[in-house]
């Protein structure tokens, strides 16, 4: 999905009264999550800051055993 779809979802959550929104991503979508956080806070929500960033590795079962997939959580808050 395009980045702006996710940005709209983040902005909507804050406009509905949320104090904090968590953006989660895995694998190649991590760069998209970073874009969503940056566009949200720099272009639409000037009072929102990045509160926390968590990185981890998740083991995903596949045909060849287990694959390690990078994961990231970005917490935005007012």
Write the layout of secondary structure elements.
Elements: H1 3-15, E1 20-26, H2 30-44, E2 49-62, E3 65-77
Helix pairs in contact: 1-2
Any descriptors?
3 strands; Translation Initiation Factor IF3; alpha+beta; 3-stranded antiparallel β-sheet; 78 residues; elongated
Verbal overview:
This protein is an alpha+beta fold and 78 residues long. It has a single domain, classed as Translation Initiation Factor IF3, CATH 3.30.110. Helix content is 36%, strand content 44%. The protein contains two helices and three strands; from the N terminus they run H-E-H-E-E. The chain has helices at residues 3-15, 30-44, and strands spanning 20-26, 49-62, 65-77. Strands 1-3-2 form a three-stranded antiparallel β-sheet. Strand 2 (49-62) and strand 3 form a beta hairpin. Helix 1 packs across helix 2. The longest helix is centred in the middle third of the chain and has 15 residues, at 30-44. The two termini are 26 Å apart. The mean pLDDT is 95.
Please write the string of helix (H) and strand (E) elements.
HEHEE
How far is it from the N-terminal to the C-terminal residue, by CA?
Answer: 26 Å
Query: Number of DSSP strands?
Result: 3
**Architecture per CATH nomenclature, i.e. the level-2 architecture:** 2-Layer Sandwich
- Strand order across the biggest sheet? 1-3-2
Give the name of the CATH superfamily: Alba-like domain
Largest sheet geometry: 3 strands, antiparallel
Strand coverage percent: 35-45%
- Total of helices: 2
Helicity range: 25-40%
Poorly predicted parts: none
Domain count, please report it: 1
Gyration radius, in Å: 14 Å
Mean pLDDT, as a whole number?
A: 95
Instruction: Name the shape in a single word.
Output: elongated
Question: Per CATH, what is the topology?
Answer: Translation Initiation Factor IF3
Query: What is the level 1 CATH name?
Result: Alpha Beta
Class from helix and strand fractions: alpha+beta
């Amino acid at each position: 999905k395009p980045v702006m779809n996710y940005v709209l979802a983040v902005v909507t959550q804050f406009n509905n009264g949320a104090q904090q929104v968590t953006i989660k991503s895995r694998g190649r979508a991590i760069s998209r999550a970073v874009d969503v956080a940056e566009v949200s806070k720099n272009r639409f929500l000037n009072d929102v800051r990045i509160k926390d960033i968590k990185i981890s590795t998740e083991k995903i079962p596949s045909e060849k055993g287990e694959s390690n997939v990078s994961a990231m959580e970005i917490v935005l808050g007012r």
